[in-house]
Amino acid sequence: MSIDSLKERLPDYAKDLKLNLGSLANDITLTPQQRAGTFVASALAARNADVTRAIVAEYESVLTPEALTAAKAAAAIMGMNNIYYRFVHMVGGDYAQMPARLRMNVIGRPGVEKLDFELWSLAVSAINGCGMCVESHEKMVRDAGLTTEQVQTAVRIAATVHAVAATLDGAAALGDAGAA
Q1: Residue 5 CB: number of other CB atoms within 10 A?
Q2: Is 23 assigned a catalytic role?
Q3: Element (H, E) at 70
Q4: Distance between first and last Cα of the chain
Q5: d(Cα 114, Cα 99) in Å, to the nearest integer?
Q6: CA distance 75 to 69
Q7: What's the CA gap between 141 and 52, in Å, rounded?
Q8: Per residue of the chain (180 residues), what is the pLDDT tens digit?
Q9: Which residue in 112, 133, 151, 164 is the catalytic one?
Q10: What sign results for the dihedral spanned by CA atoms 136, 131, 15, 169?
Q11: Measured between alpha carbons, how far is 46 from 145 in angstroms, rounded to an integer?
């Protein structure tokens, strides 16, 4: 599977997603590793097996084994953190002063440049809807030198990958052609 196979499976009503997927796959705003890792982490966060398989197949040759593991780790750790910190943010009170007491060692030693891991964590946090995490990771990548255009590109990738996953799930549930 590949990006092209995902585009072929999208129903006609999702033409904009096909176009966005194609243009983002060729976008040069991010480094090849940043772009590939953002796609992989976003696919894992979007929770669609076909999308994940296609995107990993498309980008695993672009990433070193360490970078592929780091992209997977960003999706995994943010899957936990986004829930916890979204709760803290929504409820407020004493929870914000309490230690999380959740292991997050990978954040300190992700196996790739910290900037790339933070960018992937930002993309996953956008998918998972954690405002506190989005703000924190956006600040980190901006402070580390990424431009607003680069941050926007990562979030555009996350938004598109998530929409592709949701559309394919919906199309399969409705029996739309090509989504099986």
Answers
A1: 13
A2: no
A3: helix 65-91
A4: 14
A5: 23
A6: 10
A7: 25
A8: 789 999 999 999 999 999 999 999 999 999 999 999 999 999 999 999 999 999 999 999 999 999 999 999 999 999 999 999 999 999 989 999 999 888 888 888 888 999 999 999 999 999 999 999 999 999 999 999 999 999 999 999 999 999 999 999 999 999 875 554
A9: 133
A10: positive
A11: 27
Considering only the top CATH level, what class is 3-174?
mainly alpha
**Dihedral of CA 30/73/123/140: which sign?**
negative
CB 34 within 8 A of CB 141: no
Cα–Cα distance for residue pair 70/94, rounded to 1 Å: 32
Supply the pTM of this predicted model: 0.94
Q: What pLDDT is attached to residue 1?
A: 74
In terms of Cα–Cα distance, which of 140, 146, 23 is closest to 74?
A: 140
Identify the pLDDT of residue 180: 46
Q: How confident is the model at residue 178, as a pLDDT?
A: 54
Q: Give me Rg for the CA atoms of the chain.
A: 16
Q: Which two tokens stand for residue 173?
A: 């549930």
In sequence order, the 6+-apart residues with CB closer than 8 A to the CB of 30 are: 38, 119, 150, 153, 154
Contact criterion met (CB below 8 Å) for 90 and 136: no
Q: How far, in Å, CA of 67 to CA of 122, rounded?
A: 16
130 is catalytic: yes
Tell me if 144 sits within 8 A of 65, measured CB to CB. Answer: no
